[in-house]
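Hi all, posting the design record for the shared folder.

TITLE: backbone redesign
STEP: 1 of 1
STRUCTURE INPUT:
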């Protein structure tokens, strides 16, 4: 018999359900392609910025797309792709911070870019914890190393923004 289920008084035939499943699969593939296009668009926007401050302000947008793509890759068991995306994020954060420091000698007074990066990197630590929990045991170490690097960068960004913390000698002053 080709009819096998009743939903709200309707009967659905096997070909009808197969058609719905095929449409759902096509929708998922389309959504994945749209997400990849979004990541590429955000990367182009980030790369097109000409100043480190502008790049730092675009980094949260790009980082969100990278984390979303990494989450999808983890869901699809593409752990190497997720690792590549997260390594790229870590490298972008590191290079953007270095570029910012080169043009903004005193982030305490002019914090543009630094604040956005610090907030986003801090949020990324929670995302990394979730990703690590989903990672296979044999690959967790690589993801944990990225999280440790991001945590160190977050501390550096806090120190950049707030150099006069108790127990610290301010930059440029001898102890």
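Okay, here is what came back for every position:
SEQUENCE:
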């Amino acid at each position: 018999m080709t009819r096998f289920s009743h939903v709200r008084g309707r009967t659905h035939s096997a070909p009808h359900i197969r058609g719905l499943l095929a449409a759902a699969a096509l929708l998922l593939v389309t959504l994945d392609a749209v997400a990849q296009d979004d990541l590429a668009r955000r990367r182009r926007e980030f790369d097109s910025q000409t100043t480190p401050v502008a790049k730092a302000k675009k980094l949260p947008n790009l980082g969100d797309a990278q984390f979303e793509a990494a989450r999808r890759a983890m869901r699809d068991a593409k752990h190497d792709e997720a690792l590549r995306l997260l390594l790229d994020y870590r490298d972008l954060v590191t290079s953007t911070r270095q570029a910012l420091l080169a043009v903004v000698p005193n982030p305490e007074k002019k914090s543009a870019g630094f604040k956005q990066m610090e907030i986003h990197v801090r949020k990324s630590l929670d995302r990394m914890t979730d990703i690590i929990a989903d990672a296979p045991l044999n690959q967790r170490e690589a993801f944990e190393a990225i999280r440790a690097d991001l945590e160190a960068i977050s501390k550096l960004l806090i120190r950049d923004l707030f150099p006069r913390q108790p127990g610290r000698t301010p930059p440029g002053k001898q102890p």
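COMMENT: The chain has a mean pLDDT of 85.
Let me know if anyone wants the other runs.
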